[in-house]
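Collaboration report, partner site 2.

Our partner group contributed sequences for two proteins of shared interest, and the home lab folded both. The records are reproduced in the order in which they were received, starting with the first partner submission.
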Amino acid sequence: MSVALPAYAFSPAPSYASLPRTGDSTVEYTPRAGSIGPASGTLTKNWRGVTVIFKNQEESSQTGIPTYGRNSNICGEIGLENPQAVLTVCLKLEGRISLSSSDCGSIEQTIVDERRVLWDHAKSGRCPSVVGFALAFPSTYKGEDKLYRLPPSYETVILGSPLLAVKCVYKLRITITKANSGRLSLFKNTTKTYARFNQLSSGTRPARPIIQDLSFISTLKAAPSEWHQILVTIPTKEKAEVEPISCHFIIPSGATFCLSEPIPFHIQLCGSRDSLQLFYGSAPVEPPPPGSKRPRRRQYAAIVRVFVARQVYVEVHGRSSWRTITAGEGTLRPIPPTLYTDDADARDVSVDWEGEVRCKDDVTCASFSVHHLVVKDFIIFALTPANVRTSPLLPIQHAHPIRLVTDGWTEQDLAHPEDR
């Protein structure tokens, strides 16, 4: 027996809008990571008789060096003043890594060697006045039978012992061969090479965004998974009659951060009132014995510091060498309540700070690891008690590995208006 299905009325899908309209309200939204299209600007380099235009460049670029992301194409045009005399136009992209250490020596490796013939008079006839070109950066290179991702452009010299010098550069060479028209010329053809450095950026992003509200207190209960806690203990000297202090260092749970964005953090010191007073140098000082002179001592304040450290590790001729430099400094703000509380019988008290740490403006290269060269970063918090020589508390420093990338999780131009 067949049963007739009920009739359904067609109803069109409701219209949606990215922003609330009159009478609407936003319940919840998530920052969006939009896809970035190629830049539309150009950079021009002029030589005598030759003009090169590099396309897909940022309009706001202040370095004057063509910059490209990973797996990008070097696109542009070559303008020639005397094209009828041109026989060949060749393009070469070369990349080199140079590593030097005062302890281990130095090595140099070619990681990119791409060549293209843009124009050949013998095959194509007369050369036009404008010759276009496009050449892609390779994604990998080979080092000792293993493939490595192409490293970003990076140059640094770290003085001291050992002295380290690292250079990873990419250069575009344009070679133009012309026929000599002069009767007195000794050679039939002349060849000139025009070189231009190119900047290669890693073009990487964090896997997840940093929570928008930088206040730790307001977001801990609402989103505890957004924070990662590191617990260390400020030790005491041997036979010191003072209790150690517990330190809670809290940072965003994602270990990948953008170079240009601040990294929020929270610090809490927990311990007895006497221990915290010794850490700050505010503990009462015992009076000297009768008849003795009061020793003259210079008072040193406690130091709470958060900074970003970059370690550059090289391997040359089978020997390792590394140096560590400061890549950014943090700013701290105390959070009430302070050390002194109304409850005089309280055994344990706490002191809190919050702040942000940001990389320096001259730190433009992300973390990376390739053959014989590793550039890795850490966020470090250091605690030094007041009057460290006489204090029963010992200084402590903890390093937490992080990864720095060049791009943020969202782009300001592509973000939802509510996210800006």
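Second partner submission, folded after the first:
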Amino acid sequence: MTVEAAAAVVSTESYVFQGTINKKPPHVIGGKGVYMTIEKDGKVYEDVLDAVTGAAVGALGWGDEEILPIIEKAAKNHTYSFPSIIGNQASEDLAKFYIENSPKDVFAAALWCCSGSESNENAMKIIRQYQMERGCPEKTKIISRDISYHGFTLGALSISHCGRADLFKDISIDQTNTCLKMPVCYPYRYQQKGETEEQYSQRLLDALEKIILDNDPKTVSCVLVETLPGSSLGTVPSPKGYLSGIRALCNKYDVIFMLDEVMCGTGRCNPNGKLNCWESFIGPEDAPDIQTVGKTLGSGYVTIAGVLVGPKIRDAFINGSNAVFGSHTYASHGFNCEVALGVQKKISREGLTANIFKMGNLMGSKLQDALLKEDNIVGDVRGIGGFWSLEFVKDKATKEVFPVELDIGHRFQKVCFDNKLSVMGMQGNADGTSGDIALLAPAFIITEGDVDAIVQKVIESVNQLTKEMKAEGTW
């Protein structure tokens, strides 16, 4: 081995325990707006178009100069205090902002934490304590969906169903008696021929009601779903009557209705220039009792997520112990909350939530028009607002998936990167293991020109991969 070759090996060795353990992933060097500069295997890629903002995190894009003074001010104002003993005004102000920018009386309080996984863990504990506070300790069962993902902690994995969760099933919370699963909501694959949206929704709701009844409603604590699933299914919009139907069943059987909006919420998919994704599907009368958020809350400038608590749950606590059992070290951290509030105020002031809803839908419609009728590997293009997905299939008519070992989702991600476009490829949408998708979640600041650039690069990458696979005989 030459000195140069040895140096190259050393330069790619990673000290970070993630991804491919002994090799560095591509490293971001910098960025501005919707473009990044990335170093990969010693080569620098300029002007990589960021069409997914990490994991649907970015709202303001790279290097927003208005945020830098906010970060500096927050750093001067906050070092650290343990939140259950000494709090801070920034956490109060952020909670007030979110509550006031949601429909009236839907939320009454918020808890801030550091990741979506952590927010879902906290929501589960809040719901558990809620049932105990009101004298219903027997309500322990949680119903979530097949083919779902709620985070990478053990509790969050226990309410998920995907390949990532299956790896840890032997040490997860009981999947038979506590963490139950209802059928996935996935019209592209499971809505029957001739079945309307409403009929499909009712079939799913009937299945949910049977699970509640079979398990004794007195033992069922909550039903939770992702409003618009992300990495699990690939941005499947809820069919008509589905979410409102879940709300009705929760009301009927005294069960908490929880929505996970960690990826899809906080402005990414709101039709009213506000925050909540569920406003695209249901009215305030069918709103959740508790909701988790994250990602775009801090636009990646700080690590922050949260739990939004409805008045019913808050009142039960106040009328009971009036205390939360336990806390996390960095919960409601003043620095994170002040920066996140600055981010959200800028988004609101500049109308960026309305912009991403309009530009995202434009992007989605252009991709549908360009890809679905052509001879390629794309079977479906779906989403709303600023969150869209492509689903890859071997046969458009039968929706047959590709063999798992081909890993088409991640291969498409690599092709896109070579074409200077950043997307997220995933596997497992069809049944938890097989099926391939790619996610698009650009920054809220995108223009029509950016939309055209994303669409052009996606089309180029689809055509390239389709051609390669045809030559290989894998399609």
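Feedback sent to the partner group on the second submission included the following. Residues 1-10 have pLDDT under 50 and may be disordered. DSSP finds 15 helices and 15 strands in the chain.
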